[in-house]
Write the structure tokens for this entry.
Amino acid sequence: MRATPTAIDRAFRADDVTKVYKGGLRANDGLTLRIEPGEVYGLLGPNGAGKSTLVKQVIGLLAPTSGSLAIGPYDLVAQPDVARQLCSYLPQAQMPIDAFRVTEAIEITGRIRGGQPAVVRRRTGELIEALGIEEWRAAMGMKLSGGVRRLVGFAMAVVVPGRLVILDEPTNDVDPLRRRLLWQQVRALSDEGCAVMLVTHNVLEAEKAVDRLAVVMDGRIVAEGTPSSLKAEDRGRLRLQVMLVPGTDTPASPAWVHSAVRVGNSLIAGLAEDDAAHAIAWAQGLIDAGTAEEYALGASTLEDAYIRLTGHVSDDDEV
Amino acid sequence: MTTAALAPAAAPPTTLRSGSSYWLTGYSAMLRWHLASLRMWLALMMMVQILVGVGYVLGFALFFDEIPPLAALWVSTGTPVLNLVLLGLLLGPQLVAGTKQQGGYDFVQALPVPRSAATAAWYTVTLLAGVPAMVVTLVTAELRYHPAFVVSPMIVPATLLVVFTGTMMGYAIAHAIRNPMTTQLITQVLVFVVMGFAPILFPAQQMPAWLAEVNEWLPLAHMAAVIRDALTDGLVTDVGRSYVVVAVWGVASGWLAVRALGRRL
Amino acid sequence: MSTTTEPAAAVAVPEGALLRRGARAWLHGLVDMMRFEWANIRPWAGLVFVVQIMMGVGMSIMYGFFYPEVDPTTAMLIATGVPTLALVPMGFVLVPGNVSNQRMAGTFDFIWSLPVPRSAQVTASFLVNAALAMPGTVAALLVGAWRYDVDLHLSGVLLPAVLLSTVMCVSVGYGMALVVPNPLVINLITNAIVFLVLLFTPIVYPAANLPGWYMRIHEGLPFYPMAQVIRAGLTEGVVTDVGGHFLVLGVWTVLGVALTTWVVGRRH
């Protein structure tokens, strides 16, 4: 993250943003956060936490019930047309590019965002190459797989990036190799001074890609900080994952287990480093008894902090 | 694969765009966007236009043993209205409903284009979709019936106005109605109304008086009147009032549409 | 993997998960699927109902406007032709529309993964759609007869005529919608068909108005025969060669059902 003299002027700020829908649903409740230019900021949370709702208010598709949203001196709520200029947006849903060729979709969007034709064309070519989708550069949208479509959508959002680039689940359906390429581009954007707001429910990716993140639950921010600061509470903790035999009941956790969550047939337990030997012995015992198939012991990840904070598991297969 | 070295173009904008060049860029880019979007079924659209235009002109005669000249003239001057409003009023809302269902709607709404430029671009597209079809319809009518056409220069403002109002009404339906299923049902009903419950293809005298009266306040009959007036001589009375009604409906729908687009719930 | 030597205990098979076959199973499947279709449609059913009735009644009334004057023959033709006009949009617009919507919502993937025979699934869909269309058709007929002051003579032919026509329309519409994946394309095609049929088919006007060669075509397409058999069920002595018309209608019905069966079968 570059600190520039004008960094404070250009930051994105959400102040006490509350969104209450008709019927009383509080989708956002007093959200306050700040993203500096050049920072990649993650919004992490389970489905329905209110992340996409916040995003839509930033981009001017929804208006907050109360609170303010600003980038630099510009009030985004009062001037939604300015919001659209300052922000570029990759929505969670599929992009409407069935009839567009890949290069065309990216170029037209670049033009709409005010880029000069020659520059846009060059950057489109660079992005297509950098994301590893040259093979499809002339293909029609409707022929593309979900993942490639997503990458094209990403390119459309960043060909002429806004001061704030909003990415809502950018790596959905994208294969692991190209995900890495996408994250490289995100880092490149932040190096150029764009602020990036990343909405995701994928904890492991978030951990590697963001500078700071907020965990959102039921419309509120329940924790905020860098990935390591969020894991601080888990420092000195280990994570034991026991793969249970399908159909067996969850074994009772011994006293030295701090927390245990069952996800499908995996039992994920937190424990202190000092109890590592106990953990191994216990897990081995479960295997010998035929209750478990295997186990893995490792450092605790952001996933564990996430579980601790939200009570949910971040994977798509929530139990 | 290397990390692409970002050209300076990747740096975020430092100034806001505004003014006529911003408007024009938005307009021309949205025009390109719509034309590319519709590309795949432009051919199908043309086919439907011809079916509707030529179809009604020729098909109407089948209802009669020998079609009376007045009926022939009426259907020849009424069918062009269908051509002009087909995309804007009848198909447009269906398209938007489709994007709402499939998920592309938010992205387009979040683009930095002034709402008026986006609307103007869409109007241009509906004009392009309607005018050629209208010409084909009129030529067909001429060949089949040799009706008493007397074409005046008023055909230009009449066409521009009819397409404007049809498009604005469709726009309002598309954006003001949240639920895509409702939109689809409404457009189906509209197709029906346009075909048989507005005196477009036949004179109002053939309808029950109360229905003719209702149509005095709705725009469809008047759309037919302004087009008919520009194509004939002495057939239409009080065309001034018709122009006013069509214009008012256009402006009111446009206002409703812009409000709906700007509405952020 | 477990290294125990005990044979893995079979995971208990849920009750009733054994393969079911036979007529009872098929009927069960049919009823279950009908419940499912009905549940899917229920939020819209009211609106669709109303629209169907409006369209049916609307068509009855509308055709009268096309003429400066409606004479008794025309009146009879309109009144007895309108049920056909109500059924055609049902099969060729409503059903394909439904099918497209379901396809877009992903409903079909779900339906076709259920352990219910395909034929039962499709039949259920047909029945629910046809049921939704009936009120509109009946309303059209009644309003037409009333408005144009036409005396109807119901005959035994009416029921088979309506049944066969409904199956034909729904099966062809369904098959068409499954074959064409793009919902917008299907929309255009179906609207075009309806335009054409409602205008160019001698349903509400006499066949004599058409040039001879064109009339031949209509004797082969299903719409004119359909109109005639229904008309035969509503009048006396007006329609000739009812048998021939039933034959053509029957052939189209078989084609429609075959198309649907083939498309539904080939996907999986």
In short: Chain B has one domain: 21-262. Residues 21-262 of chain B form one domain. Chain B has a mean pLDDT of 86.
